[in-house]
Write a structure and sequence with these properties.
Layout (H helix, E strand, L loop, with lengths): L16 H6 L8 E2 L11 E2 L7 E11 L9 E12 L4 E12 L8 H7 L3 H4 L6 H10 L2 E4 L2 H11 L8 E3 L16 H7 L2 E2 L5 H14 L1 H11 L3 E6 L7 H6 L3 E3 L8 E7 L3 H9 L4 H4 E6 L8
Parallel strand pairs: 1-8, 3-6, 6-7
Antiparallel strand pairs: 2-5, 3-4, 4-5, 9-11, 9-12, 10-11
Helix pairs in contact: 6-7, 7-8
């Protein structure tokens, strides 16, 4: 028999109130993220405005599968966030967008199980392209928890997203340094004392927003990383016998689906390029075979 965890904690058993009081060290209390409660209205103020606010658009999608080149978005969630540029803190959630779109094909059973979205919920539904593109146009920065997946799907469906800078709350925050050794959104939220109903696009957007609000150091880290360049090291022609070494050092295999030769690659901070090249030169003629591609938030996470 396989144990299946509940998607969120159950209600508090009030019959055990005296036990909670007698042994508070044996229990933990988690709260639903306030901005995800049913009937919540926006705009929602989170802290005092400063006057230098900019807009972040937090985006999440549910899709027909995991193929970034061919699968389709079936649910789009967006939360328009205002933050103080000078004080690096979120001041409000201005507005939310949530809508379905019919992919014109039956959903796979595993997608229905994960998302709770059914074919009947999608029939005849379509995103409002003009509205979505206006939201994208107004954004100074777009954020997703897993931008490497979300960005290609959103850009393919909405070309207005292509010219915007993107950041990733999954990869661009040093969660380990904050004592959080899993980067999954539900785990991060739970560790801060909250829960939410996961795997619905808008709710996930609001969960990301709340996490960055209650962990201001994470928000500072995210914006700081987003402003920096990264370097993608393309290790062409690496000999087969060093593949395990490359994998151990975080390199990934590229099958050449984007029109270039098959090779190993790794994305690092710009400051680490010399160190990385020195490592590769220990194993083969990296100075002749490798290439370096520099990326900003405008290029990162594109296919």
């Amino acid at each position: 028999m396989t144990f299946k965890a509940s998607p969120h904690p159950g209600p508090i058993d009030l019959s055990r109130t005296e036990e909670y009081r007698a042994h508070p060290e044996d229990f933990q209390l988690v709260e639903r993220i306030p901005i995800t409660r049913e009937g919540e209205e926006f705009p929602h103020k989170l802290s005092a405005p400063v006057g230098d606010e900019r807009t972040i658009l937090v985006i999440d999608v549910e899709s027909t599968g995991l193929d970034r080149q061919h699968d389709k978005i079936i649910e789009l969630g967006m939360a328009k966030i205002r933050y103080s540029f000078g004080e690096t803190r979120i001041t409000s959630v201005e507005a939310c967008y949530s809508e379905f779109e019919d992919p014109k094909e039956p959903l796979k059973p595993e997608i229905i199980e994960i998302t709770g979205i059914t074919d009947d919920m999608l029939t005849g539904k379509q995103f409002n392209d003009d509205e979505v593109e206006k939201w994208l146009h107004d954004a100074d920065l777009i954020c997703a928890h897993g931008a490497g997946f979300d960005r290609p799907l959103v850009e393919r469906r909405f070309p207005a997203a292509k010219d915007k800078p993107w950041c990733c709350s999954l990869r661009e925050i040093d969660w380990n340094a904050m004592g959080l050794n899993s980067h999954k959104l539900d785990y991060l939220v739970y560790r801060t004392g909250y829960f939410y109903n996961a795997h619905r696009a808008l709710i996930d957007c609001l969960a990301i927003t709340w996490l960055l609000h209650v962990l201001p150091e994470a928000f500072v880290s995210l914006l700081d990383t987003a402003r920096k360049r990264t370097a993608v090291v393309h290790a062409f022609g690496a000999p087969f016998e060093i593949k395990d070494t490359l994998k151990e050092n975080g390199y990934r295999w590229d099958n050449g689906d984007n029109g270039h030769s098959k090779h190993w690659w790794k994305e690092i901070s710009e400051e680490r390029v010399d160190e990385e090249m020195a490592l590769l030169k220990e194993y083969y003629r990296a100075d002749e075979m490798c290439s370096i591609e520099y990326r900003t938030a405008f290029e990162r996470y594109k296919l």
